[in-house]
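Sanity check

After download, print the first record. It should look like this:
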Amino acid sequence: MTVKRTANAGVLLTVDDVQILMDGVCGKVLSYLPTPPQEREKLSTDWPDAVAFTHIHEDHFDKEYAEAFQRATGKPVVAPREANLHLPGEVWSGSEFFVGNVKITAVPTRHIGHWGQTTEHQSYVVEGSKVIWFLGDASPLQLKAFSPFPKPDILMIPYAFVSSPSAIKLLEQYLPCKIILLHLPAPEDDPDGIWQAIGDGVKQLEQYLYLPQMGESVCL
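Expected structure tokens:
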């Protein structure tokens, strides 16, 4: 399977010949990286088999792309209700569905920080020949919401999961899974010092960790 980073915190996931775009199109928000124009054009020509968004923050979500996908393919976009996408069929938090032989489950989770009080958020479990947990912007404490599911072969998380000893400790129970670290700005445009904040965590988890650059594909 392959994971291609296509957005700030999003990927094009290919598992068992099924392509799933997860938080995979966004514009630029502060220092967070947008989907490159050529990548967006490709994703709008070679449509993926499924599209899912965790929440409606603009560094994770692009309503224009979601609606274009719906018009072009007739397939629903999986997203929280507040995305207001007028889905041609309901796929909401807690729902599960199949794309080919790949099962996708939307897991209700809480956004990290104060946004958890105001932002509807859902994460995803993808089950095929490998099990993938895609956390979006969920708090590290939300890992407990995944206890009913098989342990992951691949865990896709934002930088907050490796920025503190307590968060890293929560991660350690899932090792030796492979970890894809997302939601990182370019190192040269990092006014919040995110790369510095995750430095010790990256070293501690180095043998398990992948930090894909924009447009980079990782084979796992």
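If your output differs, re-run the checksum step. Summary of this record's structure: The helical segments are 37-43, 63-73, 165-172, 194-197, 199-204.
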